[in-house]
Write the structure tokens for this entry.
Amino acid sequence: MGGVALARRAARYEAFRPFGLDSYGKGLLDFTIPDRPIIAEGDDERVQRLIAIEAIQTPELLALTGLPADAVAAIVRGRERRRWMRR
């Protein structure tokens, strides 16, 4: 098993072979780390978030949750459709 792990590690580092100790200073290894959650949302947290969003009644407050505008519009359309169906 050790041989397989070492082979995988070597393959991961292969992309860095062209770089030396001064590569970062020259800007050759400049990179950014994209935003992502530190801890992935679990099923319980997702359900709680969806329940909280459903409790918000106005499009303005939905927008303040950080949802994209198209998601807010879809929620509002769905609510309007359900309201019409109840009549």
User: Anything to note?
Assistant: The first helix runs from residue 2 to 13. The chain is about 55% helix and 0% strand. The mean pLDDT is 85.
